[in-house]
Design brief:
The protein is built from no helices and eleven strands. It is mostly beta strands. It is globular.
Length: 118
């Protein structure tokens, strides 16, 4: 089992920044990839970004490319999502996920709310 705990959400004005953190514990060696997803009210959960834990390679959704940066601190078993130039449409609950591949994510955090006001 891998436990994931997100933090860092909040309320920010459009154009502002936030940094989300996701602390992993448990069988973290089984996590090949870690990712961030988000779910806005009335919408399906969507992929935001992912990072390959061991080598650090990254992938972003087109909607956040150039504004968001995913990174990891290997020693702290923590993944970050730096979000800049935030827009009201970025408002959502953001979830951290871990999985044994880049396709299937078996472990999920509880989510953290990000609200961007216009």
């Amino acid at each position: 089992q891998v436990q994931l705990v997100e933090s860092g959400g909040g309320l920010v004005q459009a154009g502002g920044s936030l940094r989300l953190s996701c602390a992993a514990s448990g069988r973290t060696f089984s996590a090949y990839a870690m990712a961030w997803f988000r779910q806005a009210p009335g919408k399906e959960r969507e992929f935001v970004a992912r990072i390959i834990w061991s080598v650090g390679s990254r992938l972003y959704a087109d909607s956040v490319k150039g504004r968001y940066t995913i990174s990891r601190d290997y020693a702290k078993n923590t993944v970050y999502l730096q979000m800049n130039s935030l827009k009201p449409e970025d408002t959502a609950v953001y979830y951290c996920a871990a999985g044994g591949s880049t396709v299937t994510y078996d472990y999920w955090g509880q989510g953290t709310q990000v609200t961007v006001s216009s």
